[in-house]
Amino acid sequence: MKKVLWVLSTVSLFFILSCSKKGNTPTPTPVTTPAYTPPVVASTFAKGADISWVTQMESSGIKFYDKNGNQQDLFALMKSLGINSIRLRAWVNPTAGWNNTADVVAKAIRAKSAGMKVLLDFHYSDTFADPGDQNTPAAWASLDLPHLITAMKNYTVGVLDTLQLNGVTPTWVQVGNETDNGMLFPLGNASNSMANFAALVEAGYTAVKSVNSNIKVIVHVANGYDNSLFEYVFDGLKANGAQWDIIGMSLYPSYETSSVSVTDSECLANINTLIARYSTPVMLVEVGMPESPASASQSFLTDIITKVNSVANGNGLGVFYWEPEAYNNWQSYGLGAFDPTGKPTIAMDAFSGTTN
Predict the structure, then answer these.
(1) CA distance 180 to 231
(2) Fewer Cβ neighbours under 10 Å: the N or C end of the chain?
(3) Catalytic residue numbers?
(4) Which residues constitute the domain of residue 87?
(5) Hey, is 142 helix, strand or coil?
């Protein structure tokens, strides 16, 4: 027993001496990630989302959840995430019915009930209109320009009257969607006739104002970093007597060869140039980034919201995310901001900042 105690004592002494030679092992400093701070924006700044797919997704059984996994109505969820404005596309006579007048009215009522403003986006088509597709609605395809203008005016007034009868007056209305080279082709193709394109924009403008003069009219062009494109469009419209209240932009940095920071900086420079040239405020009515990694999308949104809000005299009016609720590759669209379980990613935190 004494021998055992002697051995234990010797081992203990050796251990103590060994530790005293090596010194105490320092306690690792825990790595902490700084808390995310969303951008603070003006009280009038539109923190928006286009969620036009919502009714079609709901009809397919798709559900939406908050970050804790609780199922929620998408409009209420958007509101809780800091979104204060909803953008809705309007199609004339879509084959499946989605985005027709009845569908638009139903979604606009839900947006208003959730306490959000509405941006109505007239595509003046039966389906998506974009720089490569500006197809005239089938019912209008045989019309000459004067009759096309009449049809466009009547349709515009009819949709807005229907909305107002249901208690919704949009804050903003887009006359066309991504009209880089006009709309309602072939007659409204700007390359063939800028005058025709301008006449159609003016028709939309006057139709909106005839319903409610307080509604702000947007003309929307893609690639917000491309100053030459915007000057081509708006110089042409101005020279041909068309009116607008706001210049609308799209910005999708992941589609560009430049870095996100460069694309954002070029966009801000373009915004300031356009405001000086046309005395018109600017709004980013569409932005998007890949759903994953969400941190990259969050960084982009933080940067572009901060930049647009920084424009002098409040002339950077807002930023709208295009279809953040699209998840699990809905419609083959990978630029949503919800994860595969139907919950918002950290990208949406960029809209949660307070106002000043």
Answers:
(1) 10
(2) N
(3) 178, 286
(4) 42-351
(5) coil
